[in-house]
């Protein structure tokens, strides 16, 4: 792609896409893929999109890797956008929607980035791909490297990963290594490994190519809500790559003249791991990292988010904001979404729902807003969050009278 390049978000220095790097060698800041959109707009035939499967590679003209022969795909993207009338009525928000990313092949939004990142790895000829993970990244990377025939190495924090996600990484054949410490320490070790061993390719969200896949969530929301684009999009924030990617997607659509209005983006973090949200609430342009992040929402249990600058740019640039929710509020929201809409999501995915009442009461959103909440992962990713907080099933004798007796005294709520 002669009309795209890698560019530093700090000093603005640029490199050709072919140059393999994750950070600016001048100032050390993060990189992003930048397009010459006026030139690229002449290459895009929207009618061609309509003939392709609804998913990540539908938008291949806006993805800087792959072709029909090299794309490493499991059919990711194309997730449903659910109108949540019953839950919206409960919350006093009549135009509430949930983008359910748990419908992706490995059960999380990470698949959008991995199809692009692993395709890039194959194109540049590496054989080993590495990541640090709180769970979903490891599951997704392991699946896509298995598809591509590449070696996968995953570093996870000891004892702090949901077994549903760990099982996925293991079954796909990844080398899973537990690191004594938290996610941020594991990620630092991945950086050291990839600096010393150039044949190892890093696929955390610091990799700009991975975010090119994740931005397609914005493209899909645009297509799914054509003519009624959202006023507000709310998403969980952990390492902060996803909110950054989503803003990039919407911004590109706007620059191409496809989008009539840009949504305001709101990031949600848990009380025990909220460095970005705390800074946004104070109007700061930097963040204070947390040394020991802790929350039941393991997918966003990150105290030193690598993409924090991109996230602040997305939030401030969209005139959005941030909210902080407790673990109790997260679990309540998880239950509400499941019982009112039939959508079972992991705790981190419920954090946007948990934040809505707070945001409404604070005047951050209004009742008339069209709101899209991003549910980033399926509930079966972390079933322990449910089984450890609910009473065990009732046990009876195998007799009809026993169940009839229960039906007469046990109230089953109808919602």
Which CATH top level class of the domain at 81-107 and 211-387 fits?
A: Alpha Beta
CATH architecture field of the domain at 81-107 and 211-387: 3-Layer(aba) Sandwich
- The main sheet orders its strands as 4-5-13-10-11-12
Largest sheet: 6 strands, mixed
User: If you consult CATH, what is the topology of the domain at 81-107 and 211-387?
Assistant: Rossmann fold
Summarize model confidence as the mean pLDDT. 92
Structural class: alpha/beta
- Low-pLDDT ranges: none
Can you count the beta strands?
A: 13
Distance between the termini: 52 Å
Q: How much β-strand is present in the residues?
A: 5-15%
Report the radius of gyration as a whole number of Å.
21 Å
Question: Which key phrases capture this entry?
Answer:
Rossmann fold, globular, six-stranded mixed sheet, alpha/beta, 16 helices, 415 residues
Topology summary:
Layout: E1 4-8, E2 14-15, E3 31-35, H1 37-41, H2 46-50, E4 81-83, H3 85-91, E5 96-100, H4 110-124, E6 128-132, H5 136-148, E7 151-157, H6 163-171, E8 175-179, H7 183-196, E9 200-202, H8 208-214, H9 216-224, E10 232-236, H10 241-255, E11 264-270, H11 275-281, H12 308-317, E12 321-325, H13 327-341, H14 347-361, E13 371-375, H15 384-387, H16 400-409
Parallel strand pairs: 5-13, 6-7, 6-9, 7-8, 10-11, 10-13, 11-12
Antiparallel strand pairs: 1-2, 1-3, 4-5
């Amino acid at each position: 792609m002669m009309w795209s390049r890698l560019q530093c978000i700090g000093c603005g220095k640029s490199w050709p896409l072919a140059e393999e790097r994750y950070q600016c060698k001048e100032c050390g800041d993060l990189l992003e893929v930048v397009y010459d959109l006026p030139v690229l707009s002449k290459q895009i035939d929207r009618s061609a999109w309509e003939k392709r499967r609804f998913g990540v590679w539908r938008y291949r003209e806006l993805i800087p890797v792959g072709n029909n022969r090299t794309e490493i795909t499991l059919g990711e993207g194309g997730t449903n956008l659910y109108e949540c009338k019953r839950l919206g009525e409960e919350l006093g928000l009549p135009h509430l929607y949930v983008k359910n990313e748990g419908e992706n092949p490995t059960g999380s939004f990470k698949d959008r980035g991995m199809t692009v990142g692993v395709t890039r790895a194959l194109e540049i000829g590496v054989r080993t791909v590495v990541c640090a993970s709180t769970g979903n990244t490891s599951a997704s990377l392991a699946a896509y490297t298995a598809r591509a025939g590449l070696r996968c190495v995953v570093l996870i924090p000891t004892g702090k990963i949901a077994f549903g996600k760990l099982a996925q990484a293991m079954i796909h054949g990844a080398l899973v290594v537990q690191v004594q410490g938290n996610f941020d320490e594991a990620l630092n070790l991945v950086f050291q490994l990839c600096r010393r061993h150039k044949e190892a390719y890093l696929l955390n969200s610091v990799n700009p190519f991975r975010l090119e896949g994740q931005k397609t969530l914005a493209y899909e929301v645009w297509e799914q809500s054509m003519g009624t684009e959202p006023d507000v999009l709310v998403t969980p924030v952990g390492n902060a790559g996803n909110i950054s990617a989503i803003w990039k997607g919407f911004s590109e659509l706007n620059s191409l003249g496809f989008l009539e209005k840009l949504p305001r983006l709101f990031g949600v973090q848990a009380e025990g791991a909220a460095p970005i949200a705390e800074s946004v609430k104070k109007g700061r342009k930097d963040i204070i990292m947390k040394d020991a992040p802790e929350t039941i929402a393991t997918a966003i249990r990150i105290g030193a988010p690598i993409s924090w600058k991109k996230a602040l740019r997305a939030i401030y640039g969209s005139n959005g904001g941030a909210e902080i929710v407790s673990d109790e509020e997260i679990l309540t929201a998880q239950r509400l979404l499941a019982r009112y809409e039939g959508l079972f999501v992991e705790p981190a995915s419920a954090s946007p729902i948990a934040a809505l009442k707070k945001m409404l009461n604070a005047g951050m959103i209004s009742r008339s807003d069209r709101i899209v909440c991003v549910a980033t992962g399926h509930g079966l990713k972390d079933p322990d969050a449910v089984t450890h907080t609910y009473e065990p099933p009732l046990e009876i004798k195998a007799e009809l009278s026993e169940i009839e007796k229960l039906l007469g005294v046990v109230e089953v709520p109808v919602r």
